[in-house]
Every structure is written in C-alpha cells, then in structure tokens.
Design a protein that fits this description.
The structure holds two protein chains of two kinds. By secondary structure, chain A is an all-alpha fold. In chain A, 72% of the residues lie in helices and 1% in strands. A two-stranded antiparallel ribbon of chain A has the order 1-2. In chain A, helix 2 crosses helix 3 and helix 4 packs parallel to helix 6. Chain B has 13 helices and twelve strands. The longest helix of chain B has 30 residues. The chains are: A mainly alpha, B alpha/beta. At the A-B interface, helix 3 of A face strand 10 and helix 9 of B.
C-alpha cells in the first residue's frame, strides 16, 4: 500500500465505523448460531444462552454452533491481523501468511506429527503446527537476511519460494502416506471450522489474544515502517527490532490458527484492504478494524460453506478463495509494475 | 489471441466428446445382455460397448481390479490368473500372484510381459488410456461397469462366458441371486414399520457417508433399512456433527478401512443420536462393501443380520422417532 494520509472514512467518524463493524460481527455470529440442520425454536435461544440446558437444542447451540462461530471470529481475526502486519512489514499489498509460506510450514508440522507418531497424535497437533510455522518463518527470515538487514523484497521472495517448496512437501506427504494414516488430512488442508469444540476455542484464545495485543502495541512502529526503513530509522525507531517482533508475532498468530482450522487462504489478504478503506492506514485503528472485519468475513463464509451445498459441507477455504482469488487478481492488475 | 482461443477450446471440446461417449456407453451397457454363446471363437460386447473377440478359451488372464479377481476365483478359474493388482488380497492365493501395479496405475509393460490372452478391467477404476494402450498391443480387454447388485451378478455370468465356462458363471450368479433374495424376504417380513434409519459412514473424521447411487446405499435398502443420508445430493456427502445429530440414525455402519473405524470421542458423545446411545455402531470389512464383486452378498447378509437384531431388540416401541429425518 502507499504510505501517506490515506484516510478513507477515518477521522471523526471512526467511532461509528467501529460500532458498525461490531454490529456486523455480532450479526454474523447470530446468523451462524441460528443456521443448521437441527431446528431450534427462536424463543429457546435466549433461554439457552442465559440458563444453559442439557437438551439437544442447548447442546447443539452451546457445543457445536457457538464454538464454531467463535472459532471463525478468532481464526478470521487472527489471519487478518497477521495480514495487516505482513503487508506493513513487507510494504507489499499482496503479503499474507498463506502466500508467505507460514501457513504451509504449520501444515507440514501438523502433518509430520500425524504421520510419524505411532498412535493418536491429535493432542500434539497444535503444538507441532505452531512449531512448523515458527520454523518456516525463521527459515524465510534467515534466508532473506543480508548484511544490510532484511529487505522487504527479499523477504517476500524467500517466503514465496519456501511456500512453494512446503506445498510440494505437503503434496508428497499426502500422496505417500499409507491409507488411513492421516484421515481427513485433505479436508483439513482445505480449511475446516468443523473441528471446533469449546476446548479448541479455549486453547486458541490465549494465542490469538496475545498475538493481536502485541501487534497492537507495535502499531506506531508499523505506521513508521510504511515510510520506509530510512525515514523510520530517522524517527528513532529501532527498525530491525520492530521488524523482527512483527514478523515473529504475525507468523505465530497465523501458525496457531492453522493448527486448529487448517489452511484458509485469502482472508489475510482481502480483509486488510477492506479495513483500510474504512479506517485508513493508521495501524492503531487498522488492526482492530481488520480483526473485526476478518472475523465477520470468515463466519459468514462458513455459513455459506455449511448451507450452500445440498451434498453436505464445503471446505471453508474454498469459499474464501472463491471470493479472494478474483480480488487478488484485481490487486495484481492495479499494482501491475510494483513489487 | 486466436491461437490461445484454439487451445482453450480443445479441452472443452474433448469434454463434450467424452460426455457424449459416456452417454452412449451408459445406453449400450444397459442394452448389453449375456450372449448365450459359450462357444469359441467368442465375440462378446463389454460394458464399453466394445465387442471383445477371443479365438479360444483364455489360458492366461490378468485382472485389474480386486472385484474381478474375486469373481475369477469364485468361478474356479484362479489358476488362469497370470497377474493381478497389488490390492487383490482375496481369496488368500490372490495375494501371492504376480502384481501388475494398482487399479488406477496399472503397469502396461508388466502386463504385456505376462502375455495374457485377455485382460479383465473396469471402466470406473482403470484409466482409459492404459486400457487403450493394451489393446493397441493386441491384448483384448474386457471392461465391466457394474452399477448395482443385479449387474454385479450378470457381470459374473459374463466373466464365466469369457473364461470359457458360461454354465459355471450362470450357476454362481444364480446362487448369489438366491442369497440376495433371501435377505429381501427377511426384510419384507420385518415390515416397513421396523425399518431403521441407517448411516453408512466411509470416513469418521470428517464424517463422510454413502449417499444415493452407491453400493452401500443399495445394500442398506435391500436389507430393509432407510438411508439417513438419502436427502443429501451426491454419492458421498460430507456431514457436520450437527447434520449427524439431525439425521438421527438408529444404526451406523462404518466401512472399515485403515484408520477410519473410530469416531472421535467428541462425536460419539452425542447421545441423542440413537445409534450412539444404543451402541449400534458396527464396523464392516471395507473390502466387502466397496468392491463390486461377489462378496457384496456377504456384506448384505451381515447388514441384514444387524438390522434383524435391531428390529428384535427388547422393549422397544419405535414410535415417535419417524418423520423428522431430512
């Protein structure tokens, strides 16, 4: 994106914008919670939410639909925040964790543990996905490093190369694995919020909360980084430290999400641009706006994934990519000559 | 520009041609019946509509599918098999026969090296191109495409004729038909009021089930059950846990294949699903239910046994659980 005062709807009206975003997010969660094959009478909702319950309606709502909606919020929000950070860090509007190979690293980590551990490996899966993301992020970072520091161009180039390599590794693992060893791996790779349980949401929450908070704390640094390394340095910013912190936080944020929900592309790419139109490119507003918008976008995509097809569920990654790919092409065309 | 258009058009045109060819095949295979000809030289139409010619009964046969290998052994002709796929594991002697690759990746060179008199293949598993390559090398290929129990039986009859023993083919097929008929009668006696809703699961995480048009759907219906996934479009719909709760199956069968037998704990915790509550979740040998060969009948009998046990379970009044299945 271009540095400078791209303000959009920002300014005095940003309070209204945030209120609207919150309302959309709440609406998306409500829609998600009221959509599904089990019929729950309208008057039961409030009752269940306030008093709980043990009947089927209550259990469907409390242990299937709400965790799924909340997982959508966390995953969409985390991917979008991570995308904002990468785009600022790399000064490239096409950056997102999926394209940079971070998601691929997480997937390889998760698949390795499923393949090579002898017994049921699911309890360790998130941890290894997290480790895979961290390792691939570190690899990209080290590969991109030169005496003069880390240039955004090299970082994105290395990210794309490592990402392509990791995708090949994923394909080999899936093809060569003995049948039944990684059941459902293909579905998980296409993105799946259907694995939501209250426990998984609870596990993911601290990672996402901490990651989003750290990025928010780095807002000012991210703003200055848009001006370019030199200008940022002149303002007294320790550019390399902000870069490293941003890069690792954004990678870990994306990695923890992949562990639970698989590879969901394009959310981290589209949503930051949408949020920038609404609140401008100042990160103190952009990050929370992107989080809310990303959450709403993914929850709504998931509602489509669950209801659009009469033959059961669609992978939510396919739905987000269907919306994301044309947008990506549009961005490429608009930014034709620039790196 | 013009050039790129031409390139873009050709796969599309090829697709249209393929589609037309498939339509013709479907019609012709429906029309294909068993020629009474036991006599050689034999000329018999296969399920592609290709007339396969054999001057004399084959002495060397290669089978490109486990279901075909099982059929050949059923007909007492296992000794003719010169090569099979690496998935052909039944009956036990099949496992030690020379392997010519897999179902989707048969090795043409190995097959040619075995110099078979005929290759038995399928239209929906074996790649068309490989079969065509074999035919170009002068090896006759007999392609089968059974779509339901009846056509499995008639396929066995025709393989009998191709292998030079049409009467054995007829008697084995008749025996299988009688067994299937017995299952139908048992189901009829139970009455439609006692028809449990059944989910046939081929993957437990995520939950993927057998829908309309699958052999498993036919087995369940023949044995007197109702397929709880019939409302979904497509052969193998993917269900969320909530779909599973809403479908509320009385009985669940799992097609046992490495790694899919077990539901995740969080799925089985849904006690409002009668099958989980009553522990009516049964694993069936995946080889039995996914191979369109003679052992489908064994699977049918096993399923029928479980459904009979369900109908006879003590102190149950199946009332109030109907009419809300999707």
């Amino acid at each position: 994106m271009r540095p400078g005062p791209e303000r959009g709807f920002a300014g005095a009206r940003s309070g209204t914008v945030f209120a609207a975003l919150l309302a959309v997010l709440a609406g998306a969660v409500l829609l998600s919670a009221s959509t599904g094959p089990v019929r729950i009478p309208l008057e039961r909702y409030l009752d269940i939410l306030l008093r709980g319950g043990a009947d089927t309606s209550a259990r469907v709502l409390l242990s299937l639909r709400l965790p799924r909606a909340l997982l959508g919020v966390l995953v969409g929000g985390a991917l979008s925040s991570s995308g904002v950070a990468f785009q600022a860090l790399l000064r490239n509007p096409l950056a997102d964790p999926y394209i940079l190979g971070v998601s691929g690293g997480a997937a390889v980590g998760a698949l390795s543990v499923a393949l090579f551990l002898p017994t049921d490996a699911s309890p360790f899966l998130p941890f290894f996905a997290f480790a895979g993301a961290a390792l691939s992020a570190l690899a990209v970072f080290l590969l991109a490093r030169r005496r003069g520091g880390v240039s955004p161009e090299r970082l994105i180039l290395m990210g794309v190369v490592v990402g392509a390599f990791l995708n090949a590794v994923i394909m080999l693992m899936v093809t060569l694995s003995p049948p039944g060893k990684i059941p459902g791996a293909l579905y998980w790779l296409m993105g799946d919020l259907g694995l939501a349980t209250p426990g998984r949401v609870g596990t993911l929450l601290p990672y996402v909360a901490a990651g989003a908070a750290v990025l928010f704390a780095l807002s000012r640094g991210l703003d200055l980084m848009l001006l370019g390394d030199h200008a940022a340095f002149q303002t007294g910013l320790s550019v390399e430290r902000v870069k490293t912190a941003t890069y690792l936080t954004a990678s870990l944020l994306a990695g923890s999400v992949v562990a639970v929900s698989g590879l969901i592309g394009f959310v981290g790419l589209i949503v930051p641009h949408g949020a920038r139109v609404l609140v401008g490119s100042g990160h103190r507003k952009l990050l929370p706006a992107a989080f809310l918008m990303g959450g709403a976008f993914l929850v709504l995509s998931d509602v489509i994934a669950r209801t659009a097809s009469p033959s059961g569920e669609l992978p939510v990654g396919a739905v987000t990519a269907l919306a994301g790919a044309p947008f990506f092409l549009y961005l490429l065309r608009r930014n034709g000559g620039r790196s | 520009m013009v050039r790129s258009d031409a390139v873009a058009a050709s796969p599309f045109r090829r697709g249209v041609v393929l589609l037309a060819a498939t339509a013709i095949l479907a019609v012709s295979s429906a029309a294909a019946t068993i020629d009474a000809a036991d006599r050689f030289p034999l000329a018999m139409r296969d399920d592609r509509g290709v007339t396969v010619r054999l001057p004399s009964p084959p002495r060397r046969v290669v089978s490109l599918a486990p279901s075909l290998t099982e059929s050949v052994f059923l007909l007492g002709k296992g000794n003719l098999l010169a090569g099979v796929t690496r998935y052909c594991n039944f009956p036990p002697p099949a496992a030690s026969l020379p392997k010519v690759g897999g179902v989707t990746d048969p090795d043409v060179e190995r097959i040619v090296a075995l110099s078979p008199d005929i290759v038995l293949c399928t239209t929906d598993g074996n790649p068309r191109g490989k079969v065509a390559a074999l035919e170009e090398m002068g090896i006759p290929c007999f392609a089968t495409a059974p779509q339901d129990l009846d056509s499995v039986f008639s396929t066995i009859e025709r393989i009998g004729a191709v292998l030079g023993d049409a009467s054995r083919g007829r008697s084995e097929a008749a025996a299988l038909r009688r067994r299937a008929e017995r299952v139908r009668r048992v189901a009829g006696k139970r009455g439609s009021g006692a028809a449990p809703s059944v989910l046939f699961v081929v993957s437990t995480s995520p939950v993927i089930v057998a829908g309309n048009g699958t052999f498993m759907d036919e087995l369940v219906r023949t044995a007197g059950g109702r397929n709880a996934a019939a409302g979904y479009f497509g052969r193998y719909p993917r269900l969320s846990v909530e779909d599973l709760v809403a479908a509320s199956p009385d009985v669940i069968f799992v097609a046992g294949m490495a790694g899919v037998e077990r539901f995740p704990e969080e799925t089985t915790r849904w006690r409002e699903v009668p099958a989980f509550r009553d522990e009516a979740v049964y694993t069936l040998d995946g080889d039995l239910v996914t191979r369109p060969g003679p052992r489908l009948v064994a699977a049918l009998e096993e399923i029928s046994g479980y459904l009979s046990a369900w109908a006879a379970r003590p102190g149950e009044s199946n009332s109030g659980r109907d009419g809300r299945k999707r």
